[in-house]
Q: What sequence folds into this?
């Protein structure tokens, strides 16, 4: 289900208006590109450098959770996790920039002069504090150089001030820790009716093999299952003025101490409610900026405990 009768596109879609493969004239592209600032420096005027804004999907993706300490007991379901201090992991993005050939080296020197730089993406209305990792795949064409620059976000949610989600969508029945996902401006997609169906894999029993015996000797005792993951297919469509407040609030709440309690309507695969889970990672399937509205189709992956 999506808003205003708009169904998320099934083909890959990125936040951009001028795909690189459709550009025949570099000058035309530069005249249409959005501005970007790094450390409050306008890189277009200072370094004659522009961001090729066809890869914002990485920027929109939630970082994964760092691996938690755990024990895997043969006689119990899944793993036992220590959830007292969950923290987000670092995340890397690769962005493509195009520079006037004479300004390419000064631009790289500018980026590497200090460990961290503040990248302000005006089209997204968002600033990220990122660390330079590498510049690779440089190519020269028509007096310009394009290069793929990899940056790391080492401090996700740093300086974030929590604001409770307050979107006014109809209730979905999907709730995390008692808050319906509609409060975050999120719709749950129909794909969940299939992906929420449980799967089962037995933990392997003690197995003995010998060159003198056919097959193996497999210990016989009660079966226990390996841990399962739960994937939620989500869609959000919000003006930029409210998008980041809602989107960041969800990430903040997903990574609080302890496990999450997920309630799922029985109509979706018969899973029911009260599932205990830990946020693991996310991925972006589609993202599109239309005017001032950001539309993102994404998945959240949890470990069921």
A:
């Amino acid at each position: 289900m999506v808003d205003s009768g708009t169904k998320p596109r099934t083909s890959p879609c990125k936040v951009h208006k001028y795909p690189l493969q459709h550009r025949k004239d570099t000058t035309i592209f530069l005249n249409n590109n959005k501005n970007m600032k790094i450390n409050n420096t306008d890189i277009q005027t200072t370094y004659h450098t522009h961001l090729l804004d066809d890869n914002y999907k990485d920027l929109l993706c939630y970082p994964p959770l760092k691996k938690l300490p755990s024990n895997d007991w043969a006689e119990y379901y899944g793993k036992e996790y220590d959830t007292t201090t969950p923290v987000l992991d670092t995340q890397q993005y690769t962005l493509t920039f195009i520079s006037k050939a004479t300004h390419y080296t000064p631009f790289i020197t500018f980026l590497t002069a200090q460990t961290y730089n503040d990248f302000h993406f005006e089209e997204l209305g968002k600033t990220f504090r990122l660390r330079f990792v590498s510049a690779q795949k440089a190519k020269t064409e028509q007096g310009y150089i394009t290069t793929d620059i990899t940056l790391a976000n080492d401090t996700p949610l740093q300086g974030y001030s929590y604001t409770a989600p307050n979107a006014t969508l109809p209730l979905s029945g999907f709730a995390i820790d008692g808050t319906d996902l509609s409060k975050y401006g999120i719709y749950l997609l129909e794909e969940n009716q299939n992906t929420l169906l449980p799967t089962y894999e037995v933990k392997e029993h003690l197995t003995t093999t010998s060159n003198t015996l056919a097959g193996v000797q497999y210990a016989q005792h009660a079966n226990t299952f390996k841990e399962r993951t739960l994937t939620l297919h989500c869609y959000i469509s919000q003006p930029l003025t409210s998008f980041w407040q809602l989107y960041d609030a969800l990430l903040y709440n997903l990574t609080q101490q302890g496990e999450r309690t997920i309630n799922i309507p029985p109509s979706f695969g018969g899973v029911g409610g009260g599932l205990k889970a830990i946020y693991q990672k996310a991925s972006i399937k589609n993202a599109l900026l239309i005017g001032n509205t950001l539309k993102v189709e994404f998945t959240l992956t949890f470990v069921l405990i």
Remarks:
- The helical segments are 26-32, 43-47, 57-60, 104-111, 192-195, 240-254.
- The first helix runs from residue 26 to 32.
- DSSP finds six helices and 18 strands in the chain.
